[in-house]
User: Fold these one by one.
Assistant:
Number 1:
Amino acid sequence: MRMGPSTLDTISVSLTRSGESVLFLQVDRDGRCKRVGDGAPGSSADYVSSVVGPEVFLALQKVVPPELFERSGCFALPEPVGDEMLLSIRFFGARQQHVVEFQYGADSAPPPATVQHFVSMAVALTDEWYLQDMES
């Protein structure tokens, strides 16, 4: 079975800046969510794990860019300027794993707009419970 948005059980996004983890989030079909950081330098101190229900996963699953399943591996974007960034997007499901990574400079061309939108949505969809759990 070919992996695609409908076969997913887990979606994971991580971002490192000069080797420092600044964002990690994982959302599972059964409603388990894990998150550390928000993508900003120095934001990786608070680890939060909760069961929030499947709605977050289902909403994120709907915005997975289909082209992410057409490529795999690490893509080094040309002429990186600034801190080294590594964005990793991992999909798990149907007894498979699919990984797409983008290596780029913080002050140079970022990953494609569809990828940026997907990562922004992943953060936005997990913000409410992440920020609430950090405060408690």
Note: The chain has a mean pLDDT of 90.
Number 2:
Amino acid sequence: MKGIIVLFLFTGLLFASCETDEVSNCTSADWIGTYTLDASTENCPDSGTVSLVETMVVTQGSSSGSLSFGGLEAEIDGCSVKESSLIFSATLNGDSMDLTAFGCSGTYNKN
């Protein structure tokens, strides 16, 4: 009986540890590319004066840990980025990027 309990505990521990191993870590190369805004995801509180650009080009920044988002440079932290003056933040999810900028948010898909 004791052996069966240990077996169940081991199996549960094995499944729990596998779930946490799926954390993805992005590199600069994963981010670099041209992205197109999915207009159906755009959310701007003041859509009359502010909106997200339709196309976002992400290139290598001036250092190995930085990227340029349409000319605005930011440091990457794996699959997320926050520009130092907090004008925008972004999260990379495979081939899509969730971006928040100037009070607007939306999802961009990599071309």
Note: The radius of gyration is 20 Å.
